[in-house]
Amino acid sequence: MSSLDTTLGHGAPAHAEDNYLTHSHGWKSWLLTLDHKRIGVMYLCSTIASLFLGGFFALALRTELLTPGPTIAMIDHDMYNRMFTLHGAIMVFLFIIPAIPAGLGNFFVPVMLGAKDVAFPKLNLASYHLWIFGAVFFVTAMVHGGIDTGWTFYTPYSVTTPANGVIWATMGVFILGFSSIFTGLNFIVTIHKLRPEGMTWFRMPLFLWALYSTSVIQVLATPVLAITVLLLTVERTLHVGIFDPALGGDPVLFQHFFWFYSHPAVYIMILPGFGIISEIVSVHSRKHIFGYRFIAFSSLAIALLGFLVWGHHLFTSGQSQLASVIFSAISFAIAIPSAIKVFNWLATMYKSSLQLTTPMWYAFGFIVLFLIGGLTGLFLAALAVDIHLHDTYFVVAHFHYVMVGGTLLALFGGLYHWWPKMFGRMYNEFWGKVGAVLVTLGFNVTFFPQFVMGTRGMPRRYYSYLPEFQPLHVASTIGAYLLGFGILLAFVNLGVALFRGRKAPTNPWGGATLEWQCASPPPHDNFSVTPVAHDPYDFAHLKYDEKIDGYTSRRS
Amino acid sequence: MSTAAAQHPHGGDEHGHDPLVAHHFDTAQQQFDSGKLGIWLFLVQEILFFSGLFCAYAVYRANHPEIFEFAHRYLDVKMGAINTVVLICSSLTAAWSVRAAQLGQRGLMIGCIIVTIACAFGFLGIKYFEYEHKIHAGLLWGEKFNPKYAPGDHGDEHGAGGHGSGTEAVHSEAANSVPNPADRSGSPGSHGATAQPEKSAPSPAATHVAAGDAKVTTPRNTSIFFSIYFAMTGLHGLHVIAGIIVYIWLLWRALKGEFGPKQYAAIDFAALHWHLVDLVWIYLFPLLYLIR
């Protein structure tokens, strides 16, 4: 470890009050820490700040769309283009991709493994610093010329647009990409090499299986995005003519490259969410997870099949028909492992002792919204239907159902599930549930009307629209405010818990994974003695103890 | 590898933890294995990073073979071949430095590292002359493409390659009309013309005259070859520079006496990465220089 984390040596008995939060003080002890837990917390704070920035743009867009013509004087059509681009780019690159793996994952991967840290702590810190660096590039892009290309940076427009922020944004994506690659690399090595005694591959918590699959995608797909945005930057500065048709280049090649990353990337966004839901459903149902191996392998199957479907973004781009048919068929095939997960979660809940806690409410919301998002994905994977729905609000609604309805709800579920462990405080259950209901309800009011608009031909990314769409747009905008309020409430509830919540016991939910064996919040070194792992979903040995309002194990 | 790994009693919570082993590892072997897996994953990442460019190469070569057949003759095979040998030598010394470290042969290890760095600089030096020549001859990308001479003439370095000037003259004139139809009917499976019918339609074997000094006639969009040439060799060159930085850092550590039979992981991992940089060139050389 570095000289900054000096005091706690090996075998030194951790004081009862000493935890990773109080272990050392000062801003340097955070920004230069090698402790995976602090890095995880910093990632969470940074990504949630990005969520609010992206959310601010979303609300501005929805407000602008209240009326068919211009609504807010400040937002003209150029400004609108820049705002939806920033909304998408910030949400994707700064929030969704890092939030769960780099935030919750960083905190819990080593703890769930009974390890002291990730395999490469310095690389982990470097990932976070790269994230900050990438975010600075994004902010520069925002104030220095702006970007109006959409988050996909399609050529040739991105080469010719007068908005000069494109280079800043693409270099930001390049840097953030390496932040993501290093996180994935770190997790793969950690999971391979730092598992404790007793933890075979099939005794790993499913959250780790999900993050392992995610990491495989991060390492294999992100470099392709890196070279793509690098080439795009070179194209824009030096005009090399690889993507620019004016110089003999092929703009469709850019789309292939871009989606070779960006389709697997949607599984970077959703797979960690699957992992969280698997944990929540089993622990809060007080029942062994149903079909463990199927859930574990379906994560891997999704990760691998995810590499073979990028062409379904190019059905209308002049791709060969044979290729389209193959891409369509493989896209349908991905529905199978996704459905396996949903059925297994339902089977776990079936005849269980279901606890209606806040994390469980988020899990319910997740399952319903992901189901809708997943099934509408099949519409878009169908060749003929996609021609009609391509670039309409139907697509917008579909991917928001998966990304927001899926990932954001899973993130909240995970935060509420692990908050007592991370900060040692219980939150208010009532307001937690109100938040969950508001988020789910607000989300549906926002995006369900967009499915309807999409099927009726409302194109995406348009500043104005035909008056007949107005009622649905108004509903969507009202829903957006409701969703925004729900998200705020959910975070305020967690924030209040930090100061006014009652102290959390070591194991408030009766989880059997290793993180529930170390103190809340965990000490600097997590475990003074590496624990022995058992079946992560066997709850028989855990008994509720009223005195501490938590569970204790009869095993040790 | 296993020969040098220090055997350390299991259990990381003991006093007297090996100072070479980080606190979150139990044994030196576990630490070494983690590093090894990490560097291999990094190499996988590197391969996919380059794969975008190789893919672009494959697409353009399949769609426009005549450009590649014509333009590759501007490249100097002799310089490329020398650079290949230089890099292979550096790979040898890189591997040797690992073995020297494992066996505790400090002088040999430092010598190998120095030779590796020297070879890397040699490679960049030769690359510099190649680039400089192309810049002067207008053999650049996009609209900067403005060749001063036809491929057979080779500027002032005539006779470097194995091409006779007689056949060159014939070929560069024939390039105007012959290659495309001939390829499509004659050579079996050279490129899938059916896969991209709309692509080959707007770019027939038509040529255009570049406004160079000598009015060199080239196939349409010849500049794409140089876009790809500079993108691929440029990115590879950046990796060579990164390798030099890594090896200078290793040299500094080696001079401080940090490496030995118990600690050679950094040298091992750097060598693995250097081999990959070498391997990328081994592919680039035939793909760019030895097309026909």
How would you explain this protein's 3D organization?
- The complex is a heterodimer of chains A (556) and B (292).
- With 556 residues, chain A is an all-alpha fold.
- Chain A is built from 15 helices and 2 strands.
- Chain A has helices at 27-31, 36-64, 77-112, 121-143, 157-160, 165-193, 206-238, 251-285, 292-305, 321-349, 358-381, 383-389, 393-423, 429-455, 470-500, and strands at residues 542-545, 550-553.
- Chain A has a two-stranded antiparallel ribbon with strand order 1-2.
- In chain A, β1 and β2 (550-553) form a beta hairpin.
- In chain A, α2 packs antiparallel against α15.
- The longest helix of chain A has 36 residues, at 77-112.
- Chain A is globular.
- Chain A starts with 26 loop residues before the first helix and ends with a strand.
- The relative contact order of chain A is 0.10.
- Mean pLDDT of chain A is 93; it is low at 1-15.
- A two-stranded antiparallel ribbon of chain B has the order 1-2.
- The model of chain B is unreliable at 1-15 and 156-212 (pLDDT under 50).
- In chain B, α1 (28-63) crosses α2, α1 runs parallel beside α9 and α4 packs antiparallel against α8 (223-255).
- Chain B contains 9 helices and 2 strands, in the order αααααααββαα.
- Chain B is elongated and about 70 Å long.
- The longest helix of chain B has 36 residues, at 28-63.
- Chain B has 292 residues and is an all-alpha fold.
- At the A-B interface, α6 and α7 of A face α1 and α8 of B.
Computed over alpha carbons, the radius of gyration of chain B is: 24 Å
The stretches of 5 or more residues of chain A where confidence is low (pLDDT under 50) are 1-15
Number of separate strands of chain A: 2
Instruction: Describe the sheet with the most strands of chain A.
Output: 2 strands, antiparallel
Secondary-structure element order of chain B, N to C: HHHHHHHEEHH
SS-based structural class of chain B? Answer: mainly alpha
The end-to-end span of chain B amounts to 43 Å
Average per-residue pLDDT of chain B, rounded, comes to 79
Main pleated-sheet profile of chain B: 2 strands, antiparallel
| Overall 3D form of chain A | globular
Structure annotation, total helices of chain B: 9
The low-confidence parts of chain B are 1-15, 156-212
Fraction in helix of chain B: 55-70%
